[in-house]
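tool_call predict_complex ligand=nicotinamide-adenine-dinucleotide
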Amino acid sequence: MAEFLIEPRIRGFISLTSHPAGCAKNIDLQIERIRSENLPMGQKNGLQNVLVIGSSTGYGLGAALAACFGYGANVLGVCFERKPEGEKPGSAGWYNSARASETAAQDNLIFQTINGDAFSDDIKNQTIESIKKEYGKIDLVIYSLAAPRRNDAQGNVWNSVLKPIDQRYEGKSFDLRKESITDISIEPATADEILGTQKVMGGEDWQEWIELLAEQNLLADGARTVAFSYIGPEITQALYRNGTIGEAKKHLENTAIVLDKVLSQTSNNITGTVGGAWISVNKAVVTQASSAIPVVGLYMSILFRLLNERNENESTCDQGIRLLRDHLAPHSEPRLDEAGRIRLDDFEMADDVQHTIAEIWPMISNNNFADLADWPYFKKEFANLFGFEISGVDYSLPVEVDIPLNS
Ligand code: NAD
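tool_result ok
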């Protein structure tokens, strides 16, 4: 037993602590939400085994929970989280995964996690061995890594940066430490930085995973795979879509086309649905990865105010449900845009929402920020990621931090 009182220690877009009971409660709420959908449980329906790479937080977690607790699929996740050590709690993703595993075991479901660097041969091989021993062929691979760096198999270290290309970016942003709007200026990326970001956040590693699974004969007939992208509004284009990360996303999107050619050759034995590889363009949500992106935090604070007013502000788990139910689950056929992508960002990208944001953006300042944006909501969502400010959790009590990853 190792019970301690845990206080939030949030520094800008970093949290130095996470709360095990808060993270567990967060997972319970998401599972409850998924169950309320009454998705077709039962493993004979063609979604028996799901591999999720980047399974412990954000979009990977939302989809992993939907697959396990909505469809009864056996989920094997891969993530890179800090384990608890002594008085130091583990990272939020550790406790999220632990709670998902514990609840799955109680319900005779399977949610297991391999913790380590998904870019490495070592973790890839461990995952392959685990699939061979415990799972069998994989029906769906969800690729949801968001990482700052990648050590590739050749010993190169690549770093991902958030920079514009060709031109300096000058504009508004939100300083999470000072909690105020500031002007920022970001120099354009070098060619090495553009390549580095593509190596980390592009499709190379996704392709390596799929090719390895295929080589090992571990993809079921009709196997499907998906990776996540983002497009977003005009005001973030210079930094996001036309910047280093956007270039990486274009590489990811092109990788889907390459993988699709191979996977679309077979179909699922039970449902008859054809395999394939897709990109799902998701909405902006607060995650560890997105809160690190300059400008996007300010945009999200405005967006969430508008979407909450319309009751259209979906969570990662809502998007995970939609992704499976409407596109990738057995008997579902992905509905695609003109570029062949699944779109889950429709509420965010609705013309009237974007039009209002475009009107607000030039006039937003520290004087009217409280009225035009919902910063308290953003801040709470951020605290929630680490298990803080969750209602029903008594933060005055010591809490067990030494929790095993898998039950
Ligand atoms: P996140 O930070 O919540 O999750 C990242 C996941 O990757 C975690 O499970 C983490 O443990 C894992 N991870 C990171 N490095 C790893 C490594 N080396 N080995 C193994 N696991 C590792 O991020 P997110 O925002 O959910 O992003 C996931 C994907 O969704 C990204 O491709 C992102 O661009 C995309 N996306 C995000 C948003 C958004 O607003 N957050 C919107 C659209 C698309």
